[in-house]
Amino acid sequence: MTTAETTDALGRILAPAAGVRLHRADDDSAWWRHAVIYQIYPRSWADSDGDGVGDLPGITVRLPYLRDLGVDAIWLSPFYTSPQADAGYDVADYRDIDPIFGKLADVDALIEAAHGLCLRVIVDLVPNHSSDEHAWFQSALSTGPGSLERERYVFRDGLGDDGAQPPNNWESVFGGPAWTRVADGQWYLHLFDPKQPDFNWENPEVRAEFESILRYWLDRGVDGFRVDVAHGLIKAEGLPDWDEPLHMLGDADGVDHDHGGKHPPMWDQDGVHEVYREWRRVLNSYNPVDTPGHDPAHDRVLCAEAWVDSPERAARYVRADEMHQAFNFDFLQAPWRASDLLESIEDSLAAGDAVGAPTTWVLSNHDVVRHASRLGLPVGERRPNGIGIGDPQPDAALGLQRARAATTLMLALPGSAYLYQGEELGLPDSTDMPDEARQDPTWERSGHEERGRDGCRVPMPWEGDAPSYGFGPSDRTWLPQPEIYGSLAVDRQRGVAGSTLELYRALLAARRDLRLGSGSLSRIDGYGDDVVALVNAADGRASVQVLVNLGVGAVPVPEGWEVLIASGPATADGQLPTDTAVWLRPAE
Ligand code: NOJ
Q1: Count of domains in the chain?
Q2: Domain co-membership, 172 together with 245
Q3: Is 223 known to be catalytic?
Q4: Which of 2, 87, 499, 527 could form a disulfide with 533 if both were Cys (CB 3.0 to 4.6 A apart)?
Q5: Is the CB of 91 within 6 Å of ligand 1?
Q6: Residue 197 covered by a domain
Q7: Is 424 a catalytic site residue?
Q8: Tens digits of per-residue pLDDT, 233-279?
Q9: Cβ of 367 below 6 Å from ligand 1
Q10: Structure confidence by residue, pLDDT tens digits, 80-89
């Protein structure tokens, strides 16, 4: 890190005190280095046929909303043929569409419509496990022990004289044992639900199959893949016992566990990187790099979902010949404290820069309590895996205020940012959903200890006065919508000054105009310990200063700067209140 400039390109004073440069401006020709990517959870975004489950034609019709919002790309959670035991993350056919979502022709139409609106399309790839209803698993069951078909999954004999004990002591992420016994006495591994058997990635046939799946979707025109459980494919040799809990989806308490220096045998094994190097070669072949014809605008990308212990471990997935991006869960898990946010930002940028990769930023997704609710919980306490009736409830107003400030911070940062559907409306989690309505396997598998992820997966409200709040033509929704969703619907916020939707639109438009996604970033000192103060700048571009006030008192806006966008109103005397963020530009 070097000392930052104290003036901008026009020689105007930057900040109250010189700071420290955290990241240098990037070349912005490669779209994925700075793109804002909007996650669509297909079952919950838009329902075209009124069956209560969202679908692909519903998405296609609503795509202009995303162009108007100002995002660059969409990521679609799985829409493949699936018994839906884990909401589609249990794939039975990787080359076809589940009838609840539509047909192959619908995905083709969606890709074409998205491209027509200049939106790139990233699809979800689930390589760690299939569904137990996948043809390969069915033939592994019928052919029996010792067959080549069984070699595609992780089958083992059990322990004990009669083999009645599982092969090791691993637990599933969703609770309960990670092994299930089949009729002939062998056991198969499933790090998730029993309906999600893990593939054996030591088997070349599995590798060849997934390369073929990549090509299948690239040939259909997708721009990239979000890779599910990217850190799980390879397991440590001998599948040694593991006495610690088998967390994923982040240790829910937000604390890094060093497991006494031991490395979990099921996660983040070095062997996974070889797989991604091979995949990168496949993707590059669609837009050959290092050739005169290479146009970075046509790069196809890979993004790792890897819940690993640190930004440094995550950066290993984005070395030059591996993936393009990895989710930055460190930022998502940072407690709402200036020092924690700054540390996460600095570490994330440093880790990405060390391997020449862009950093990504994310605050919400379909696996965690939405940030409008999460940030309304007491700071520094365990991050719950779902909130339900009888649980401590978030402070909704505080949560929304902080969420708006957190997003205002996130969208000022260089790198690529992921948004989760509905966060642009300030949607909270559904925190009073009746437990009988829950569908996430976590709730049952954990013996009703973890409520799970249904609260963040509730169908989108589009129209405040329509049945299902405009989610579909009927009043059916696969999860119940809380009443508050009506008042937060798109039509209640569109064009309304100060609404969360208009805040997102303003941030996204300014981020694009000012090219913040590829700017340099410096920390500004001098505001005290409770303020995050950063400057995003680059040669020839106007500087943007972002201030987030996490202290108890209001903070004056520095002289010579004017407010471009604020996450909430200023105090009566024009200062920045607690839990509020602003983007400032040099005063005219
Ligand atoms: C991560 C996905 O985001 C989550 O929803 C899913 O349950 C697990 N991977 C298993 O596929």
Answers
A1: 3
A2: no
A3: no
A4: 527
A5: no
A6: no
A7: no
A8: 999 999 999 988 776 655 543 445 556 677 899 999 999 999 999 99
A9: yes
A10: 999 999 999 9
